[in-house]
Amino acid sequence: MSLRLRAPAKLTRSLRVGGVRPDGYHDVTIEAVHLSLADDLVLDRADTPSVTVTTDVDWIDARAVPIGADNLALRATLLTGTPTSIHLTKRIPLSGGLGGGSADAAAVLRALGAPPQRAVELGSDVPLCLALGHVRATGRGEAVTLLADLAATVTLIVPTFGISTVDVYRTWDALGGPHDDREDPNDLEPAAFTVEPRLAELAAAASRRVGERPRLAGAGSTLVWWASFDELGFVAQLERAGVRARAERFDGLPVWLIEATSLPRQDPIFDTSTRSPVTQTRHGGTRAV
After folding, report:
1. Fewer CB within 10 Å of terminal CB in the chain, N or C?
2. Catalytic residue from among 10, 39, 90, 180
3. Which of 104, 125, 180, 271 is the catalytic position?
4. What is the C-alpha to C-alpha distance for residues 125 and 119, in angstroms, rounded to an integer?
């Protein structure tokens, strides 16, 4: 019997970066929400693990999605010891900082009942993607707290290029570890703009178009306005799978604009660094889920 899963994108609202840990990772404090923009997966038992990829949106090149050992969903099935064939419908942009691979892996781990504390073995964003809704992650990302729901409609700016998260963190170190002093900061923005100067150009062009500067979403190439199409003056060209979208150009730079909404907290999960329950914060208080 097939398992049909949804893997929501994660959108970083703020990101503070600390020093390098003994394990080589950086300490971080991340606040994020999960979005209506999502990948879909269908899992079937199989003698030989495999991944096939399709898409139903124009901002994804399905041929660019890894189907071998670099595919995190496939690695998640191997971690559980369950030989599985995966059919992935990809909608979350690649190398965009929206946690697409991590979201796919987290969906597989939830479905196959893997010990959640093993999620970090697949990547620092995977624990954060196990806990759907409005979340905070600390440590290298493995300590996750569920926060009070945050209702928001956002507009993502998705360029035709991606950025390596590893390159962004290395550049942040090389720049001396700059810190963002704005409200809802992203300390990695200067590093990302250094790694990919076109991203800085895009942010400036988008700002000139609507009069509001977009922010870097995570450690990838996606920019975000925390506002809807209507508020920004854009008209959707298509609606599909929980999002609205349009193709656009900012000073000649082609992008897709994707309007998505934040998700409320969904299923309870457990702390991925221990066996204790994840904490949930509501109305200024904290309780175990």
Report:
1. N
2. 10
3. 125
4. 9
Q: How far apart are the C-alpha atoms of 282 and 84, rounded to whole Å?
A: 38
Q: From the first residue on, what is the mean pLDDT of each consecutive set of 10 residues in the chain (289 residues)? A: 93 95 92 97 94 96 94 94 94 95 95 88 93 94 94 97 94 94 94 97 97 95 98 96 96 97 74 36 32
Give me 2's structure tokens: 């097939």
User: At 167, phi and psi to the nearest 5?
Assistant: -65, -35
Q: Which two tokens stand for residue 156?
A: 């993502």
Bridge partners of 144? 137
What are the structural domains of the chain? Answer: 3-149 (3.30.230.10), 153-261 (3.30.70.890)
Is 10 tagged catalytic?
Answer: yes
Q: Among this protein's residues, is 90 annotated catalytic? A: no
Beta bridge partners of 186: 15
